[in-house]
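Exercise 4. Each item below gives a protein and its sequence. For each, produce the structure-token representation.

Item: Signal peptidase I (Oenococcus sicerae).
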Amino acid sequence: MTNHKHLKYFIKVWLIPAIIGILIAVFLRSNYFSFVRITGVSMEPNLVNNQITLLKKKARVSRGTVIVFKAARSQSANTGLDSLALRVIGLPGDKISFLRGHLLVNGKQVNESFLTASEKAATSMSVDSGWSLNSLSLNSNWPKNQRNIKRVAKGTYFVLADNRLDPIDSRQYGLVKKTDVRGVLSVFPWAGKKIVKNVNHTSENFYR
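Answer:
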């Protein structure tokens, strides 16, 4: 086989398929999914530091899903992170409260089987009487356009950390804008059956 034929064979059999494969991978990564490494302890015990996860950029955001979003400036200053992974609790129009040890969305108790008893209790932020979305919104860390609200605002989500002792979530910093959401996070099967259920499928059984 001549050098010319060798070159044509290489281009046809190896180079062109490789280029096509790279372009497809770049397209999928840019538009549909990417890999995300968890940083920090805010989602323990369900997601741990340095864990590799899958980010689905076109997936539907529901109550119970874990999202990755661009951190607010104050959150970023506090954590040193540009993006955070937290769990969606409230959708636009929802009323959120924590009363008598129970997390409520629109008056219905949330099924928090993905948390330990101590983590559930920590949701209170040491406020004995509990809190409502309205009382949280009076926090000076909340954006001014989210102050004194009674329901989750249009185009936003109320999010909580699974590690409720680490209040870098909506209790402290306000609602997450839909435009800042980068996708819905999933774990791989080898994370274990319990973790897969707690991260990938919580939205299927959100209420008690």
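Check: The longest helix spans residues 3-31.
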